[in-house]
Structure formats: C-alpha cells, structure tokens
Specification:
Shape: globular
Largest sheet: 8 strands, parallel
Strand content: 5-15%
Radius of gyration: 28 Å
Number of helices: 19
Distance between the termini: 36 Å
CATH architecture of the domain at 43-269 and 325-383: Alpha-Beta Barrel
CATH topology of the domain at 43-269 and 325-383: TIM Barrel
Oligomer: single chain
Length: 535
C-alpha cells in the first residue's frame, strides 16, 4: 500500500490533537515520525507487498530482458542491510535488488548445532529466524535513515529548507526488498513443507525456492550422491507452498522450482504409472535397466517393470536406490522444468548446473520454452564454480576451434589458473566474459534473477584473514586502519559511524520525545563518533 505523505499524516493526527500534543504531552510531530518509521505492522505485510514488487519486476523482465534482478546470499541481517545500503549509495535506488537466503549458509553458519553440511540436518526453524532477523535489520535501517531526516527537519531554518526535507521524507525509499528463501527439499513430507512454508512467509518471505531432491537424503546441489523424487511428489510440495501463500493472503507469492537432475543420478522410488505418457512413465523411462534373460533371470525380491514391449529389471543399488541411465540428466532437467511450470504452478525455474556455461543453460531453456514460452529462471552464480578456470578453459577451447590459437599456446589444465595469465589475452577475455556473464545469461537463457549463494561466507573468511595477517603480523594498527577504516571513510560506508549505525541517534531522539530537556543523550560533544562528522 502507498505510504501516507508527511502532510496527510500530520493533518490526520492534528485533527485528533488540535493542541499539537496528546493529553500526556506527546507531540504530533513525534507521532508522525514514528508512524512514518514503522511502515509495516507485521512481516506478513512485508511478504504481501514484496510479492507484488517481485511480480512487477518479472513483468518488466518479460518486456525487456535487460531488466534482470540480482541478489547476494546473506547469513545475517547486518550483511543484508549493508548490501542494500551499498546499492542505494551507488545507484540511488535498491529497485531490482533482492536478498537471497541460502539454506547452505543456514546449515553452515546459522543453526544451534554448529557448522553443518548442506543436508537439511539443521533445525528448520533457523530458516524462519533468519528471515525475521533480516527484515528486522532492514526496517531498522529505515528507522535510522528516517530519523536523520526528521532531525534535519527540526534543524531547518527556513520554509524552503523544511519543504526540501519533507519532500525527501515523502519520497524516501525503503531498505526492505524481496527475499528469496531456500526451503531446501521441504524438510519432510508435503504437510511438513506446508507448515514450514507458512512460517517462512509469516517471517516475511514473498518467494520460496524448493528443490526436487529427497528430503531426508538431501545433498548440496554441487556435491555427489543427489537423489531426486518422482515429479508427482515434487508437484505435491509445490502445491503445499502455494496453499501456504494462499492461506496467508499472499496472493502474488512466488515459487521457484529447482531441479537437481543434471547432477543427480539416483531416485529413491519407482512411481506408479497410470497411463502411457503420464509423469510417472516419463520418469521411469530414464531408469537404468537390465534385460531379463536365462543368464540374468528375475530373482526373489527383485522388481520388474514392463517397458518397450518387454519386462526389464531396474538396476537397484545395495542401499535400495535406483540409478538413472548415464547421460540423461539434461533430458530429465527439461522434463522436470516443464512439469514444474505446467503441472505444478511454479513461477520460476532453477537449474543447478555443474559449470557456468551460458550456451548449455540457454540450450536447455530453449527446449523448455517450446512447451512453456514465458519460462524464466533464477540462476545460481555459485562459488562452487572455479569461475576463473572455467571461463579461461571455455575461451581456450573456443579459440582453438576457431583456429585463433594453437593448443600448445596455453596449458590445458589447472595451470590456466595461475596469476601469470591474469594479464594475458586469454585472461583478459575471460574476465570480460565474467563482467557480462549475468547480462548474457539473462538475455540468452531467460534468467530473470541472478544470485550468488554464498558470497558473504567467502567475503567474511577472506576479510578476516586479510585483517588478521596484518594485525597479528607486521602492520599492527595500520592493518586495521588501511584495510578497513580508511576505506570505509573514503567510500562513504555509513557503518564507519558504528554507534549511529545501530541506532544511537535514534535512541536519543526517542529520549527527547518522552523526556525533553531531561533526556540523557549519547550524542553529545564527548561522543567519539563526532570525529567522523565531516565525512
């Protein structure tokens, strides 16, 4: 809903309190400020509004593929807050920017049981808790920024200055943006998926991403041993997510259906086919089978299926899982995507790939779009890829095929990763392709949303390593000042004033609202944050 303007809200509240204050002495101006700082009553209201934002972005992308959206995976509210602040500082707006909430990072960093692999081993409530935390942080960023504007309003010395500040208040853009929340494989059966989906939505998620792996055998998308479920099973979980959105009144809620079939060679069960060509039969046809012969007869306890006019035995591993035929991943991905969109009502697709190859993804999407013309993707620009090595190999292979270079001109393997090649022709071309990767994949492969799942995990590790090497090494305080504080000041990173960043001035304002001249404030002349006042 559109936010009321300063003038409208001031007039509305003044009508209730013509004297300019309540019976208890609370001023109308202060009530107006607090109302404008608190835009949403609940995080469910955020989910409803952000779903509308995301739908509008999807429509804009359908009209113009250059209008793709982006996000970074954040494992704390502070990470999300600083990301949005950086985007707003750079672009003047956060439109088209989302927050990605990675199940991997919840498992690895944000659960009560320590650092865990991405196997749905952590308590499921940790996911909802992190969504709640992120939106609390983004709303607090709004409060701090709005408080600064109201302080400027009080300090305005002319009607012109006052009008200028009121215009900034009325046109203030929130730090709150859509969250794409990873619900893994649903953490259980379809009812468990529905119950968890409701908790994520109530915490503020307007978009849920769910994958077609077996919930209790879930693996990270970039590891081996992945086991998929039959398409009917996955569609039931998609329906569970949709029912959760509908029950809570998030009419525009978005569902991302992820397929791990490209790298998943196993299934847990053989679905029951009701008629030729149904979802079950399409799934079964990719199973690895053996002919039943005199030399390889059906044994007690073995399973046989009728396929291609004869009975065959699906290969079954000692753990009871069924392998698919080698080399069928791509075909299964295409069928998964079509079924998720057409039969499951998903809004976006996620194809988990093993390398970042625009041509490969574009080829699969082209096949899907033959059946569902407006198919759109969310794509994981994953840190699990060695981007430098992959792109340099792609350039090398292409240039050899085109006759531009000889195979002996550049090494074939991991040597291409060496810093020696950073300024080489192949290194520069690979970097140029990296710079336009998201633009290319959005234009050519239907990628509406580009994300990096684990950037803040790796950034935190690298940054702490960098500071620790200097601080505990030769540079001591210079390491902190040079690599952290000096850069914060020069880039205009608001967190350099760390007291202000966490609401110290906001607290002072509230004390003034209720205590007036008796307020004991933190922002006086002795506050060391004043050293940054000119920055």
């Amino acid at each position: 809903m559109p936010r009321k303007t300063f003038s409208d809200l001031h007039a509305e509240i003044s009508a209730r309190y013509p004297s300019g204050q309540t019976a208890g002495g609370v001023s109308v101006d202060d009530i107006v400020q607090l109302r404008l700082q608190n835009t949403w009553d609940t995080h469910l209201d955020i989910a409803r509004e952000m779903a509308v934002v995301m739908r509008a972005d999807m429509a804009a992308y359908d009209a113009d593929a250059s209008k793709f959206t982006q996000s970074l995976g954040c494992w704390s509210g502070f990470h999300a807050q600083q990301m949005i602040k950086a985007v707003k500082r750079m672009r003047g707006t956060a439109k088209g920017t989302y927050v990605y909430l990675s199940g991997w990072m919840v498992a690895g960093l944000r659960n009560r049981w320590g650092h865990l692999p991405d196997q749905s081993m952590h308590e499921k409530t940790a996911v909802a808790d992190l969504i709640e935390e992120i939106y609390t942080s983004l709303r607090q960023a709004d409060e701090v920024s709005m408080n600064d504007l109201f302080r400027a309003l009080k300090a305005a010395s002319s009607d012109a200055e006052r009008s200028k500040v009121i215009d900034q208040i009325d046109n203030f853009e929130t730090h709150v943006v859509p969250i794409i929340a990873d619900i893994d494989a649903g953490f259980g059966n379809e009812h468990a998926t529905y119950l968890l989906a409701k908790e994520l939505i109530k915490a503020g998620a307007c978009c849920l991403q769910i994958e077609n792996q077996v919930s209790d055998a879930k693996q990270c998308g970039h590891q081996d041993g992945k086991v998929t479920v039959p398409r009917e099973d996955f569609i039931e979980k998609l329906r569970a997510c949709r029912l959760a959105f509908e029950e809570l009144g998030v009419d525009e809620g978005v569902i991302v259906a992820r397929t791990d079939s490209l790298g998943a060679g196993l299934t847990q069960k053989v679905p029951v086919s009701q008629r030729p060509g149904d979802l079950a039969s399409q799934y079964i046809k990719w199973l690895k089978t053996e002919q039943i012969t005199e030399a390889n007869p059906i044994q007690e306890g073995e399973l046989a299926i009728f396929q291609g006019g004869e009975f065959v035995k699906p290969v079954r591993l000692p753990n009871g899982l069924f392998p698919f035929q080698e080399g069928t991943g791509r075909a299964r991905v295409i069928e998964d995507c079509i079924a998720s969109l057409r039969d499951g009502g998903a809004d976006l697709l996620w194809i988990e790939t093993d390398t970042p190859n625009v041509d490969e993804i574009a080829g699969m999407v082209a096949e899907v779009r033959k059946e569902v013309p407006n198919a759109k993707l969310t794509y994981n620009n994953s840190p699990s890829f060695n981007w430098t090595l992959n792109l340099r190999k792609q350039v090398r292979d292409q240039w050899i095929a085109e006759g531009k270079i000889q195979a002996a001109d550049y090494p074939e393997g991991n040597e291409l990763m060496k810093a020696d090649y950073d300024a080489s022709e192949i290194g520069l071309e690979a970097d140029a392709r990296l710079a336009r990767f998201q633009t290319d994949i959005s234009a050519r492969a239907g990628v509406f949303h580009n994300l990096i799942t684990l950037p803040t995990f790796h950034l935190t590790a690298k940054s702490v390593d960098e500071l620790s090497r200097g601080y505990f090494g030769e540079d001591k305080m210079l390491a902190y000042v040079k690599t952290v504080q000096r850069e914060e000041i020069r880039r205009g990173v608001s967190a350099v004033k760390h007291q202000h960043e966490v609401g110290s001035d906001l607290g002072d304002t509230f004390k003034e609202m209720v205590s007036g001249e008796r307020a004991l404030k933190a922002g006086g002349h002795a506050n060391t944050m004043n050293q940054f006042a000119a920055e």
